[in-house]
Amino acid sequence: KQEVTQIPAALSVPEGENLVLNCSFTDSAIYNLQWFRQDPGKGLTSLLLIQSSQREQTSGRLNASLDKSSGRSTLYIAASQPGDSATYLCAAAAGTALIFGKGTTLSVSS
Amino acid sequence: GAGVSQSPRYKVAKRGQDVALRCDPISGHVSLFWYQQALGQGPEFLTYFQNEAQLDKSGLPSDRFFAERPEGSVSTLKIQRTQQEDSAVYLCASSQWGRTGSYNEQFFGPGTRLTVL
Predict the structure, then answer these.
(1) Which of A32, A46, A65, A81 could form a disulfide with A56 if both were Cys (CB 3.0 to 4.6 A apart)?
(2) CA angle centred on B81, ends B79 and B83, rounded to 5°
(3) Angle (CA) B30 B36 B40, round 5°
(4) In degrees, to the nearest 5, what angle opens at C-alpha A17 toward C-alphas A13 and A21?
């Protein structure tokens, strides 16, 4: 059974720092891996999708990598801003649905 | 274009009442998913539709939960005889293609927050 773990559970950084969020999964047989952002009381906003054959994807200040053999993905956020404060969720596509981690709650202070 | 929409956004029910939650997926999307998100947790899969066919309902927690998508577009998640443990956010997602495929990105609605008193 696929399990997804995210470390750390919470992170507080000052504005301008570069940071890395970690995601690990137990079964390497995945179709893709998605990173989402969730603001309090809101739904999920898709940030990046990495296909199983890809190693990384970039969108603006965000870069996500995927290493299927080790069961790991990282989300790199460059030059963090207060507006980046939210919960970040990774999800592995295996079988029918997405399997989610519990998320990393990020707080960026000005 | 319009994203996934859900209604109502908030629902308060007394224990034992029946509720119906609606999802309007992105137009033309083949796949539709329902997830349940408890406080402080990641979403958990409930059920999956490919067009009007319910292909996977392995995540439905009990026979009180029922979902349908009769015309392959709008979907309704119904919960009968609600219990306090049903309190959660119910998220709907859609994707353009069928369930397999590394390019199959899921897009989520804002969710319905259900509170059972």
Answers:
(1) A65
(2) 90
(3) 135
(4) 70
Q: Which amino acid is at A110?
A: S
Q: Which residues of chain A have pLDDT under 50?
A: none
* Nearest CA distance, A81 vs chain B (angstrom): 23
Q: Which residues are CB-contacts of A47 (< 8 A; sequence separation ≥ 6)?
A: A34, A35, A36, A37, A59, A62, A64, A75, A88
For B86-100, the pLDDT digits (tens) are 999 999 999 988 766
Structure tokens at B74: 């709008």
* Residue of B93, B83, B78, B69 lying closest to B115 (CA atoms): B83
Question: B48 to chain A, minimum CA–CA distance in Å?
Answer: 7
Is the distance from CB of B70 to CB of B52 less than 8 angstroms?
yes
- Above 70 in pLDDT, residue B103? no
Portion of chain B with pLDDT greater than 70, in percent: 95
Token code pair at residue A25: 């999964």
Chain A residues with CB under 8 Å of B45 CB are 96-99
Q: What is the pLDDT of residues A3-32, one digit of tens each?
A: 999 999 999 999 999 999 999 999 888 889
**Exposed, middle or buried, B28 (CB in 10 Å: 0-12/13-18/19+)?**
exposed
